[in-house]
Amino acid sequence: MIEARRIVALTPNLAIDRTLTLDRGLEPGTLHRVRQVREAAGGKGVNLTRAVRALGGEGVVAGPVTGFNGRKFAALLQSEGLRGALTELPGDGETRQCTIVVDNGPYPTEINEPGPEVGLETWASLLAGLPEGRRVVSGSLPPGSAKDAFVALLARAGGPFAVDTHGAALVAAVRAGPEGGVDLVKPNRRELVDAAEQLGLGADRDEPYALAVAIQRRYGVRVLMSRGSEGALLVGAERWIARAPRVEVVNPVGSGDAMLGAFLVAEESGSPPDRALALAVAAGADNARRGGGRLDPEAVRSMARSVPVERLP
Length: 313
Prior knowledge:
Layout: E1 7-10, E2 15-22, E3 34-42, H1 44-54, E4 59-65, H2 67-79, E5 83-88, E6 96-102, E7 109-112, H3 120-128, E8 134-138, H4 147-156, E9 161-164, H5 167-176, E10 182-185, H6 189-198, H7 208-219, E11 222-226, E12 231-235, E13 239-243, H8 255-268, H9 273-290, H10 297-306, E14 309-311
Parallel strand pairs: 1-4, 1-8, 2-6, 4-5, 8-9, 9-10, 10-11
Antiparallel strand pairs: 2-3, 6-7, 11-12, 12-13, 13-14
Helix pairs in contact: 1-8, 3-4, 4-5, 5-6, 6-7, 8-9, 9-10
């Protein structure tokens, strides 16, 4: 078992994930029968925490909840034995519900609700009350949240934070850098290219490695870029590429979260960057072939030993 300090996953827009498995391929405008229904606490930070726990780490899910769905979310989290540090929002809003439709195609169809608005005072209070541990912001901000102001709060919250988000929030996190409490960002290829373009670093979609290097050099933040079935890049003081093992994909939802959770567990346990990256890529692949964030720790470790990892110039 890996011994790592606590990983605290601040998930700004928690959700109840409702997965519907259909009896046939999805066809818009027609009637479908559901063969299986599964409900679980959802959000990128929850997926990450499942991976952390599976690999022997201690994980905590933090974030705002509200309404009946908020109480249901807390119950679903507890039913899995996952620890929560949840903040109840005032008002009559509802924690969002996301619907995932699984048919016989290679990828599921996702329908995500927006979620409740959260004010800056609530964010400041929530961040001030986070448990001690390695902190990560995982997922998008809910509607109405001021991205720059939220990221500015991270520096006062006692980071450093790893950040896995997209769009304006990712750009704000990169700009904040280590001095602003952000030491690692985890975009995918599209998110990285979009952020680099907004930062004035170019938009060459065929050269994500060069863009990651440019971001790291200018802002000092490390970049862990997921490349889907191809693996991942890590750009920091050292630069590595890992190629993912080939697996039969069942449901890739949450694979990036499993990857980041595994990386943080390995890094916090003292693993060197290349081995942390290998474990991360193996965790993402194992999640993709099982679905639902259910990792087999022995299978992940076995795959990690055979993941090709190459140091880049």
